[in-house]
Amino acid sequence: MLSKTRGMPVQSPAPGVIPETITGPVGNGGPVARNADVTPALPTAQRRPGGATRGGRNRRKAHRTRLHGYAIATVALVAYLIALAATNTAHVKVNWVFGSSRVSLVWLVLFAAILGWLLGLAATAAFHWRTRAPRRRGGARS
Predict the structure, then answer these.
(1) pLDDT digit string (tens) for 71-98?
(2) What percentage of the chain exceeds 90 in pLDDT?
(3) Which domain does 119 fall in, by range?
(4) If you average pLDDT over every residue of the chain, what do you get?
(5) Within a domain: residue 124?
């Protein structure tokens, strides 16, 4: 197989048609022929600077808006947790099965939240494990 360097003209598939050479990055690194007389995929009214389409621009803006929303929600959640911790610094008596202790309320709430989260993960994993589709025996796939 012959390899061509970047920028070398590509042989035309039709006699009498001179293709353009695109020297930008391509999947296999070689030049790609494109006929100069072929109309562009989009009308020039829909083209944006840099070749972006209207739909692509809208998708990017929607994605950026979602990311900003997630960032704002995260900051609000952290601020709420800081306010919750600051207002619940009083010590409370916790009665265990075999005794009792005095704990700061914020540590009790934090411990209960983490314990609930871990138990939820364990329950989800157990349900997923017990309700998964049966595995096929043997190495052959159909």
Answers:
(1) 999 999 999 988 988 888 889 998 988 9
(2) 29
(3) 91-131
(4) 76
(5) yes
Find out whether 20 and 36 touch, Cβ atoms under 8 Å. Answer: yes
Tokens representing 4 are 């061509």
- For residue 126, what are its two tokens? 């157990």
Q: CA 99 to CA 5: how far, in whole Å? A: 81
Domain count, the chain: 1
Is position 25 within any domain? no
